Automatic annotation (TrEMBL):
CDD domains, sorted: RNaseD_exo (cd06142)
The organism of origin for this protein: Streptomyces qinglanensis
One annotated GO molecular function: nucleotide binding
Protein name per Swiss-Prot or TrEMBL: Ribonuclease D
Name of a matching Pfam family: DNA_pol_A_exoN
InterPro entries linked: 3'-5'_exonuclease_dom, Exo_C, HRDC-like_sf, HRDC_dom, HRDC_dom_sf, RNase_D-like, RNaseH-like_sf, RNaseH_sf
The HRDC domain, residue ranges: 202-282
């Protein structure tokens, strides 16, 4: 794709009408990070366009051409970060996955939704391919184009269903919140999310995980490959548990011996040695410091009254979510319920509970549906 091609697409979409269907393909599992390697769009009057953000990494002109237009995405929170990186930031959106959840659909994947709502079967088979491949094979491009082919039709059908159920305004609040949400800050201590981390008990072992994770991340970033292709999480955990004394011992562990050269083993062993050499006061703590309540499993010992409030509140929210035919976490997030129950308002009036929920980020429709029942739960368990 050339700059001239992008300019033609931009002009066509500026002249189009109605919502624009948008999707993005990443190369998760193949490349470092979550950048977009293909952007698909469809709009009435403009047709379908497949845009290559590798050849044209700045799509801000296309974004400007769509100013004020409603974007239709499926699972918007997955695609918005990589779209923002290339200059595409919707101010209005309709998320068909979230709409499906609010409408009570059991299966909300795009294929299932299109089949259940519209009666069409989408082509399958290329969702997990390496989208950084160039040139992209024709079957992959056809598959990608189909992802936006029916998205606006699905949006219209779901809007009608949400209106029928009296949930359309709820959905619109949710969509507005997604569009307005700032980019999330970098995750603190991402190495703690290493798969199998639950096996690592001692702080010295945790330091090995941290050093190996950081060394792997640096290599993966330089090579632009998925970290898992450099060294598996399972191998990192094995090294942490074994604390090998030298590269030879490290090479005997699962995940290190296969195709690992001496230089690589020395690199990983150096990370292990850095963890071994750390003074005790510089070892990572067993758990991250948080600004929220402790894990609920400890509430009964720490604060039995809070544990009783949480049990009553969870039961009330779960029951009401079932009555509304939507997932409990969409009615009110579990974290919001926990925080409210750990530090409830001094006086558990409906107004006070509403204010507390609002401060915790709940939407107005969620507050309207849950403040009263949470007031009852907080006072009944007192």
């Amino acid at each position: 794709m050339t700059a001239e091609d992008l300019a033609r697409v931009t002009d066509a979409y500026a002249a189009g009408s109605g919502p624009v269907a948008v999707d993005a393909e990443r190369a998760s599992g193949y490349r470092y990070g979550q950048r977009a390697y293909l952007v698909q769009l469809r709009r009435a009057g403009a047709g379908t366009a497949l845009v290559d953000p590798v050849a044209c990494p700045d799509l801000s002109a296309l974004d400007a051409a769509l100013a004020g237009t409603e974007w239709v995405l499926h699972a918007a929170s997955q695609d918005l970060p990589c779209l923002r990186e290339i200059g595409m930031r919707p101010t209005r959106l309709f998320d068909t996955e979230l709409a499906g959840r609010l409408a009570g659909f059991a299966r909300v994947g795009l294929g299932a939704m299109v089949e259940n709502v519209l009666g069409y079967a989408l082509e399958k088979g290329h969702s997990a391919v390496d989208w950084s491949t160039r040139p992209l094979p024709e079957p992959w491009l056809r598959y990608a184009a189909l992802d936006v082919e029916l998205l606006v039709d699905l949006r219209d059908a779901l809007e009608e269903e949400l209106a029928r159920q009296g949930k359309l305004e709820w959905a619109q609040e949710e969509f507005a919140a997604i569009a307005a949400a700032p980019a999330p800050p970098p995750r603190k201590d991402p190495w703690r999310r290493t798969s199998g981390m639950h096996k690592v008990r001692r702080r010295r072992q945790m330091a090995v995980v941290r050093e190996l994770w950081q060394a792997r991340d640096e290599v993966a970033r330089k090579r632009d490959v998925s970290p898992g292709k450099v060294l598996s999480d399972a191998a990192i955990v094995e090294a942490a548990l074994a604390l090998p004394a030298n590269a030879r011992a490290l090479g005997a562990l699962p995940g290190f011996g296969q195709r690992a050269g001496r230089k690589q083993l020395d690199q990983w062993q150096a990370a292990v040695e850095r963890a071994r050499a750390l003074p005790d006061e510089e070892l990572p703590q067993q758990s991250q410091a948080t600004n929220g309540p402790p894990p609920p499993r400890s509430w009964a010992d720490k604060d039995p009254a809070a544990a009783a409030r949480l049990a009553a509140a969870r039961a009330a929210v779960t029951q009401h979510a079932e009555e509304l035919n939507l997932p409990q976490e969409n009615l009110l997030t579990p974290d919001t319920v926990r925080r409210l129950c750990w530090e409830p308002p001094a006086e558990a009036t409906t107004e006070a509970v509403s204010g507390a929920l609002r401060a915790l980020g709940a939407r107005e429709w969620q507050i309207g549906q849950t403040a009263g029942l949470l007031r009852v739960a907080l006072t009944a368990s007192a």
